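Lecture 7 notes: from sequence to structure.
We start with the chain below.
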Amino acid sequence: MILFSFRLLVQKIFEIMITSGKKKTLTFNLQSSLYNFNNPPTTRHQLKMSQNTSQANNKRIAKNTLMLYVRMLISMAVGLYTSRIILQVLGVEDYGIYGLVGGLVGVMIFHRALWGALDS
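Predicted structure tokens for the same chain:
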């Protein structure tokens, strides 16, 4: 998925470069904050607005990072707890078979995604 997204990003950048015909005309739009390399902020008001937007974006990034860490910790805790319960219910041998089948399914999904991305 990451490789596919990166490929689309590179294609989009090349399309913009080809269609524009100018040297520095790339405009990036990241989360509704628009920055044009041809027109940097010149007045104090424009610069202050740019800094306020940057500060708001930094706060949002920090909040989202914290939320991602909380989500990761919760998912790890749930995973550890459920694996303990599954081990108690299945037993040692059946849990090993369960782990083996889960690993094989994961490998199959990975290979299918990899070859699907290479074909398209």
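Points to note: Residues 23-33 have pLDDT under 50 and may be disordered. The two ends are 13 Å apart (CA to CA).
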